[in-house]
Automatic annotation (TrEMBL):
<feature type="modified residue" description="N6-acetyllysine">
    <location>
        <position position="617"/>
    </location>
</feature>
<keyword id="KW-0479">Metal-binding</keyword>
<comment type="function">
    <text>Catalyzes the conversion of acetate into acetyl-CoA (AcCoA), an essential intermediate at the junction of anabolic and catabolic pathways. AcsA undergoes a two-step reaction. In the first half reaction, AcsA combines acetate with ATP to form acetyl-adenylate (AcAMP) intermediate. In the second half reaction, it can then transfer the acetyl group from AcAMP to the sulfhydryl group of CoA, forming the product AcCoA.</text>
</comment>
<dbReference type="Pfam" id="PF16177">
    <property type="entry name" value="ACAS_N"/>
</dbReference>
<feature type="domain" description="AMP-binding enzyme C-terminal">
    <location>
        <begin position="538"/>
        <end position="617"/>
    </location>
</feature>
<feature type="binding site">
    <location>
        <position position="316"/>
    </location>
    <ligand>
        <name>CoA</name>
    </ligand>
</feature>
<comment type="similarity">
    <text>Belongs to the ATP-dependent AMP-binding enzyme family.</text>
</comment>
<keyword id="KW-0547">Nucleotide-binding</keyword>
<feature type="binding site">
    <location>
        <position position="522"/>
    </location>
    <ligand>
        <name>ATP</name>
    </ligand>
</feature>
<dbReference type="InterPro" id="IPR000873">
    <property type="entry name" value="AMP-dep_synth/lig_dom"/>
</dbReference>
<feature type="binding site">
    <location>
        <begin position="197"/>
        <end position="200"/>
    </location>
    <ligand>
        <name>CoA</name>
    </ligand>
</feature>
<dbReference type="InterPro" id="IPR045851">
    <property type="entry name" value="AMP-bd_C_sf"/>
</dbReference>
<feature type="binding site">
    <location>
        <position position="340"/>
    </location>
    <ligand>
        <name>CoA</name>
    </ligand>
</feature>
<dbReference type="Pfam" id="PF13193">
    <property type="entry name" value="AMP-binding_C"/>
</dbReference>
<dbReference type="InterPro" id="IPR032387">
    <property type="entry name" value="ACAS_N"/>
</dbReference>
<dbReference type="InterPro" id="IPR025110">
    <property type="entry name" value="AMP-bd_C"/>
</dbReference>
<feature type="domain" description="AMP-dependent synthetase/ligase">
    <location>
        <begin position="94"/>
        <end position="483"/>
    </location>
</feature>
Length: 658
């Protein structure tokens, strides 16, 4: 049934016209009411000051916003706070030390229960350990870990010490890790021996060994034992977590840092091959992460059990597992593994076991659940659920309705949250106690946020019109730049609508007749595969780095489950003309090795030539048409003639991108 319900095409999106207002009961008890919009409209800066006051500041700010050096914002200027103190210590101090912070569920079924007192002890010990290693405020620490509690302790210990963390998704390759360590000049990598994936331990440290062999800035590798896999060991450089952290004192006094102190760098794909290190700072970021988490998910810290299924390797894990939720004194589930290990009901079993009340996931997973069938969630007691969320890509109305009916018992509000690594926190979303939700639409900018859909000239389009999504006002959680590259920051986000001073998100969008926003997918060369951003150029560079490849063009083709699938067209070198199964497999594996398995092309088509415009630009739209052509089917290789026939048919249709 998912075959037809795919991707962001507008025709698909506008098929469902029902709206779903919250129940009176939900609305009456909600954290956010309609007055929140009114308060923000009345005085934006005063509104954000009120939100910042939800946190503990050691020194209060003198000024809410300094935008004089645009596009480099400063929020809560002169304020000082400790982010980890806000996420941990203050909850213990206010008498909630025994509250569970994390119900951790390992993939093999082992569990750990971590209270706020435990969390404070673990974060303090980790901070003392990092200090013993000689790390100092401002140093960068790479974190390359699966979803184990130590990953969260590590992030918070960095925040506590004013170290800037750079979390690298554990599914990325050694090469991806290497380039990120190098770009940030990190001094330490924290990792594990291995990780559980699909029921089996898989090694992780070998990738670190390979990466750090070429990164002289790394002084130590701190290794958590997770799978008990045998690992290679470099004496002096490598340290077992247990040997160093366990012996530390569980007392540590946090220091307050400037509101603009760098909290983390997180790399994301851009339209060139080189990933961008998105920089987030402390006070504004935490203010917005905390505010959005509290209001969008209607978090009730005394009674809710929250679960965000993201990985800490992505921004969703940063803002909606670590900083937002913990700052709000959440009780949350953190799950290590894959959703179908050991069976396809694993998520629902976890919801039932912990009585999860708020569940936040990605459309690609919802479509996968649809494929597995509604009988699976039906076997479990999901009655604890009261808010559902979606993030990462446009959610098609069919998937939205399926989610509501089969997970939310036709009762729970669904919040479709639009945001980006760059925005730091949710920007466009319904408020569950206010908005009559519409399947497929993220609807309106949150109170305090301003978003517009504009045409080529930067003029707002009328209701019913489509164009580019822009953010026309600075916001507290906004990126403060690209690590080490201010020029690229201006170019990438601020040059398209420089005259108007708009931030251009890279997404197409449209207003419906009520003025609600519908996201239509990226308008640049960034693909969205299972909610992961991957640039076409990055995959092309990986392909041409293979000795058999002369030229490569990569497109994102609509895929019923993953949103988009990566399709590569390659021209082989003269002496490597054989484009058989083996050659194609070698290329797919090569991309996985260079970037990571998530970037492995769904299809590689060996072609004798690539369609180009007269000026030499590859005609991607045409290639996308070819890639999406149903007659191609699912085969990984195609006879040259088939592809070329399709390409020439397309050319004859007058497709052009000049
Ligand atoms: C897309 C993930 C439609 C969008 C938090 C954006 C979405 C990119 C949605 C950012 C949504 C994210 N509806 N599209 N609710 N959420 N996107 O940086 O194209 O990994 O630009 O951040 O994902 O991806 P990123």
């Amino acid at each position: 049934m998912t075959e037809q319900s795919q991707g962001p095409a507008l025709d698909n999106l506008l098929t469902e016209s029902r709206t779903f207002p919250p129940s009176d009961e939900f609305a009456a008890a909600a954290n956010a009411g309609p007055d929140l919009y009114a308060a923000a409209d009345a005085d934006r800066e005063a509104f954000w000051a009120t939100q910042a006051e939800r946190l503990h500041w050691d020194t209060k700010w003198d000024r809410v916003l300094d935008w004089s050096d645009a596009p480099f914002a400063k929020w809560f200027v002169g304020g000082k706070l400790n982010v980890a103190y806000n996420c941990v210590d203050r909850h213990v101090e206010s008498g909630h030390g025994d509250q569970v912070a994390i119900h951790w569920e390992g993939e093999p079924g082992d569990t750990r229960t971590i209270t706020y007192s435990d969390l404070l002890a673990e974060v303090s010990k980790t901070a003392n350990a990092l200090t013993e290693l000689g790390l100092q405020t401002g140093d960068r620490v790479a974190i390359y870990m699966p979803m184990v509690p130590e990953a969260i302790f590590s992030m918070l210990a960095c925040a506590r010490l004013g170290l800037t963390h750079s979390v690298v998704f554990g599914g990325f390759s050694a090469e991806a890790l290497r380039s990120r360590i190098e770009d940030a000049a990190a001094k330490l990598v924290i990792t594990t021996d291995g990780q559980y994936r699909r029921g089996k331990p898989a090694p992780l440290k070998p990738a670190v060994d390979e990466a750090v062999a070429q990164t002289p800035t790394i002084e130590h590798v701190l290794v958590v034992k997770r799978t008990d896999t045998e690992v290679a060991w470099t004496e002096g450089r490598d340290i077992w977590w247990n040997d160093l952290v366990d012996k530390q004192s569980d007392q540590h006094t946090p220091e307050a840092f400037d509101s603009e102190h760098p909290l983390y760098i997180l790399y994301t794909s851009g339209t060139t091959g080189k990933p961008k290190g998105i920089l987030h700072t402390s006070g504004g970021y935490l203010t917005q992460a905390s505010y959005t988490h509290f209001n969008v998910f209607d978090l009730k810290p005394d009674s809710d059990v929250y679960w965000c299924t993201a990985d800490i390797g992505w921004v969703t894990g940063h803002s909606y597992i670590v900083y937002g939720p913990l700052s709000n004194r959440v009780t949350q589930v953190v799950y290590e593994g894959t959703p179908n290990t050991p069976h396809e009901g694993r998520h629902w079993e976890i919801v039932q076991k912990y009585k999860v009340s708020i569940y936040y996931t990605a459309p690609t997973l919802i479509r996968t659940f649809m494929k597995w069938g509604k009988d699976i969630p039906a076997k479990y007691d999901l009655s604890s659920l009261r808010v559902l969320g979606s993030v990462g890509e446009p959610i098609n109305p069919e998937a939205w309705i399926w989610y509501r009916e089969n997970v939310g018992a036709n009762r729970t509000p669904i919040v479709d949250t639009w945001w980006q690594t760059e925005t730091g926190s949710i920007m466009i979303s319904p408020l569950p106690g206010v908005t009559a939700t519409k399947p497929g639409s993220a609807q309106k900018a949150l109170p305090g946020i301003s978003a517009k859909v504009v045409d080529d000239q930067g003029k707002e389009v009328p209701h019913g019109g489509g164009g580019y999504l822009v953010l026309d006002q600075p916001w507290p959680g906004m990126l403060r730049g690209i690590w080490g590259d201010n020029e690229r920051y201006r170019d990438t986000y601020w040059s398209r609508f420089a005259e108007q001073g708009f931030y251009f998100a890279g997404d197409g969008a449209k207003y419906d007749n009520d003025g609600d926003i519908w996201l239509l997918g990226r308008v640049d060369d960034v693909m969205n595969v299972s909610g992961h951003r991957i640039s076409t150029t990055e995959v092309e560079s990986a392909l041409v780095s293979h000795p058999t490849v002369a030229e490569a063009a990569v497109v994102g083709a609509t895929d019923p489950t993953t949103g988009q699938g990566i399709v590569a067209f390659v021209i082989l070198r003269g002496d490597a003309v054989d484009g058989g199964e083996d050659a194609v497999k070698a290329l797919r594996d090569h991309v996985a090795k260079e970037i990571g398995p998530i970037a492995k092309p769904r299809q590689v088509m060996v072609v004798p030539e690539l369609p180009k415009t007269r000026s030499g630009k590859i005609m991607r739209r045409l290639l996308r048409d070819v890639a999406e052509n149903r007659s191609i089917g699912d085969v990984t290789t195609l006879a040259d003639s088939t592809v070329m026939d399709l390409i020439s048919q397309g050319l004859n249709k007058g497709s052009s991108e000049d």
